[in-house]
Inverse folding.
């Protein structure tokens, strides 16, 4: 370097500083370009792209103009913006090691501005009021996505699910699939069950039209993951109500396939469903919609988010829905009104608090308890005419189903320093439901079915709390992301169930009589009623730890958890003797001993420089077996699961395309079988095994083309059991000798599933703003019982849709969008699963359209 270089650089920087001060002070010139002079690196002819550089940043919260100037000098950037328009705006504090783009996106969060980049030149741009996305777009690419946000298009690159830390999906050594907000908008599902139709490893509609719009509580939804029933979590906490099933309140849905007990406690080995509720957005959002659809559906929704304070450190959001609809079954309706208000307060640059409330009133939940026999569904001939899907075999005078649900939640976060942070999520839920209807009981003839009137009312209260410390540190070349936490869930549940035994009720499947009165009243001498009642209490507490260790491209995940479970059920039977008019009660069980379980997992994944990431993991799970004991009166050990999984993830460089392939084997132990030495009792030494593989693609192929596709193979069998059963034919008649269940396929889970869905926005001038989409779902055959008596056939369904941005064609209609979605386009009659001699029929063709306005 020449001796004269330093004085010249000093002189140049002095002149540049004077120019910047003149620009900043000029009253006539309101456009500002900071860092106009070359940096030392540029003066020496060495240019490193700023987007790829990491730098140490420590800029306090304050006035945006000043913060931008500080960042430009730190990162040697040119930042262009209108000084008058950003005057008085607040900038968030930015501290730590990060890229300039990450620093700028954090600084601008909540200001109403985003930015675009061309080389080292950055321009501030007004953020669109229609965008609800958490990540920031930088030069057409995504710098970093919000791990709990709605994703970009059909792709989410980061997640909190499975690890409870902000982690790229390509650094997690197990399968995680995200249903993004955009995918839900294009498909227009009316509940979570429908939203999961295209998710790998998930069979969401095994119960067919059982849930015609009702919620998801993780127990009766019919959703199966890798062959096992699933559990749902909202914002990381388990729930007991149906509040998570309302898609109008949801930003994203995630399927964590495989055991997840280390982070979430009691879950089946097939996985868990994670749901994220809507919360205040950094960018203002104003949206209303009016919808209509099949079976007389009318719907109105609103979703509004904006800042309360001028600086944007306090923001709010309100999501609301009102809907009334019939279903494909006569006299079974769905009605709901609900509201989800929330508020976020950034108390200071290191502390934030989010409060959410929810109230939902569902006077008609659309649930169909009426199953149809195999004769008329699986069998369709001269003796078994097809049973129409709209057939109602209940009684109009005894046909009420409804619920009321309320929830309060808070999410608190505080960063002590760059090494340690604290977060806590709390939820209180209260749910009340009541139903007076009938359910299918037994097939009597080819044209008649037996039904049983019942009356059930239940109330539940759930409290959940998850508290955790987490952070990052380095030990030499190893980078650690650690977390230590504790959570608990307390459930109090009360149910009264009464059944009408005054007579045997039958219904003709082709000409039902729906006006018959029923008698379910324990206080009436005219009614012969059997029922059950009693409280159920459940408490689970766990402590967990996890370390994500990263060295160059290699990531290692280690975690463990200890859980304690207490539960009791003081249930009673209630008999109303017609002659004595008396009620007798008898205890059905005492409080069992507490259970505990330790679960753990370990995995590794290696990210190559060209985007490919092979991985392997081992994980375990547990589920308590409540309510039954062995011959000594001792509670059974929890069901325990263990999984080995290996796979490949591929993030296409510089594109929003993620490809995943995984192979797995799951063993679930302590499955109950007969105790051969003690007649009438069970033994917990059985085993179920599930093995298979999944391949999937989530892709924003171009700005106009989005696609999801997957194939799932699942082979789940009874690996160890001494249970036997007789086979039955499709009419329900048993035949032959009893056969062993060992090695037989577990029923109601298809071995093969394939799906593809694509959305394309037409870029031509004559159809500007028009988009179309198309989907196909293939579900393979399933067995009906534990000894492979017979199968339900496979089926293929087609979905189509279109959307039109009217503002693209008519500027006066800016913000107005029309949409139409049709599922089961061909109106195919199909059976989703059968249980013995009864079957669940699938949903017929359903049309839904809406008009949405954003401003």
């Amino acid at each position: 370097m020449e001796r004269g270089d330093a004085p010249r650089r000093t002189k140049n920087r002095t002149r540049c500083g004077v120019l910047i001060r003149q620009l900043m002070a000029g009253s006539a010139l309101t456009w500002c370009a900071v860092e106009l002079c070359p940096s030392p690196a540029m003066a020496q002819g060495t240019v490193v792209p700023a987007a790829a550089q990491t730098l140490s940043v420590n800029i306090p919260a304050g006035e945006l103009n000043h913060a931008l100037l500080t960042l430009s000098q730190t990162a040697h950037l040119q930042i262009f913006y209108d000084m008058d328009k950003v005057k008085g705006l607040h900038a968030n504090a930015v501290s730590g090691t990060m890229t300039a783009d990450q620093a700028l996106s954090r600084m601008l969060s909540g200001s109403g501005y985003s930015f675009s980049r061309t080389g080292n030149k950055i321009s501030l741009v007004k953020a669109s009021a229609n965008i609800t996305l958490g990540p920031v777009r930088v030069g057409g690419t995504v710098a970093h996505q919000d791990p709990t946000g709605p994703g970009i298009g059909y792709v989410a690159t980061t997640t909190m699910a499975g690890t409870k830390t902000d982690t790229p999906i390509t650094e997690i050594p197990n399968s995680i699939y995200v249903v993004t907000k955009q995918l839900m908008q294009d498909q227009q599902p009316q509940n979570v069950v429908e939203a999961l139709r295209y998710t790998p490893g998930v069979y969401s509609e095994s119960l067919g039209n059982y849930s015609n719009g009702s919620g998801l509580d993780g127990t009766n939804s019919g959703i199966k993951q890798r062959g096992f029933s699933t559990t749902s979590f909202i914002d990381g906490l388990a729930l007991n109500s149906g509040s998570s099933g309302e898609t109008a309140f949801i930003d994203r849905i995630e399927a964590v396939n495989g055991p997840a007990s280390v982070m979430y406690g009691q879950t089946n080995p097939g996985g868990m469903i994670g749901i994220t509720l809507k919360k205040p957005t950094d960018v203002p959002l104003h949206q209303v919609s009016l919808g209509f659809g099949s079976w007389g559906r009318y719907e109105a929704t609103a979703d509004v988010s904006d800042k309360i304070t001028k600086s944007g450190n306090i923001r709010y959001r309100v999501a609301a829905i009102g809907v009334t609809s019939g279903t494909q079954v006569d006299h079974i309706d769905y009605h709901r009104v609900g509201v989800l208000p929330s508020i976020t307060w950034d108390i200071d640059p290191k502390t934030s608090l989010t409060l959410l409330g929810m109230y939902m009133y569902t006077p008609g939940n659309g649930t169909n308890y009426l199953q149809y026999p195999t004769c008329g569904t699986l069998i369709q001939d001269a003796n078994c005419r097809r049973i129409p899907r709209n057939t109602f075999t209940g009684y109009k005078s005894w046909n009420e189903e409804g619920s009321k649900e309320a929830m309060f939640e808070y999410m608190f976060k505080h960063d002590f320093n760059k090494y340690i942070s604290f977060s806590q999520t709390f939820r209180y839920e209260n749910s009340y439901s009541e139903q007076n209807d009938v359910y299918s009981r037994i097939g009597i003839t080819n044209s008649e079915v037996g039904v049983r009137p019942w009356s059930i009312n239940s109330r539940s209260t759930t409290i959940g709390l998850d508290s955790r410390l987490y952070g990052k540190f380095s030990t030499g070349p190893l980078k650690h992301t650690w977390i230590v936490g504790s959570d608990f869930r307390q459930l109090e549940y009360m149910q009264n169930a009464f059944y009408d035994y005054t007579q045997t009720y039958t219904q003709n499947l082709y000409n039902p009589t729906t006006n018959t009165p029923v008698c379910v009243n324990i206080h009436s001498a005219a009614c012969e009623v059997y029922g059950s009642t009693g409280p159920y209490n459940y408490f689970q507490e766990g402590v967990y730890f996890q370390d994500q260790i990263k060295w160059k491209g290699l990531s290692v995940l280690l975690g463990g958890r200890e859980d304690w479970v207490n539960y009791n059920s003081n249930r009673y039977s209630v008999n109303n003797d017609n002659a004595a008019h008396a009620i007798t009660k008898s205890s059905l069980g005492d409080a069992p001993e507490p259970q505990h379980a330790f679960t753990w997992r370990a995995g590794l994944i290696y990210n190559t420089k060209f985007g490919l990431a092979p991985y392997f993991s081992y994980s375990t799970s547990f589920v308590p077996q409540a309510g039954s004991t062995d011959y000594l009166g001792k509670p059974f050990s929890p069901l325990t699961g263990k999984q080995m999984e290996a796979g490949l993830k591929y993030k296409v460089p510089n594109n929003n395309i993620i490809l995943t392939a995984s192979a797995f084997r799951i063993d679930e132990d302590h499955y109950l079988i007969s105790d051969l030495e003690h007649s009438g009792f069970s033994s917990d030494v059985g085993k179920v095994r599930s093995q298979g593989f999944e391949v999937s693609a989530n892709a924003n192929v171009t700005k106009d083309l989005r696609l999801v596709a997957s194939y799932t193979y699942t082979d789940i069998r009874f690996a160890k059991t001494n249970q036997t059963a007789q086979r039955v034919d499709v009419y329900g008649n048993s035949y032959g000798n009893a056969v062993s269940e060992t090695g037989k396929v577990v029923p109601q889970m298809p071995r093969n599933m394939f799906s593809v869905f694509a959305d394309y926005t037409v870029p031509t001038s004559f159809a500007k703003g028009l988009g179309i989409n198309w989907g196909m779902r293939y579900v393979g055959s399933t067995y009906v019982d534990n000894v492979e008596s017979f199968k339900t056939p496979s089926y293929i369904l087609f979905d189509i849709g279109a959307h039109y941005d009217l503002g693209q064609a008519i500027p006066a209609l800016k913000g107005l969008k029309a949409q139409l979605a049709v599922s089961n386009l061909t109106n195919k009659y199909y059976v989703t699963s059968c249980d013995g001699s009864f079957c669940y029929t699938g949903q017929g063709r359903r049309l839904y359209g809406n008009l949405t306005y954003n401003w």
In short: The chain has nine helices and 52 strands. Confidence is low (pLDDT under 50) at residues 1-52, 128-142, 213-220, 578-589. Residues 143 and 287 are 26 Å apart (CA to CA).
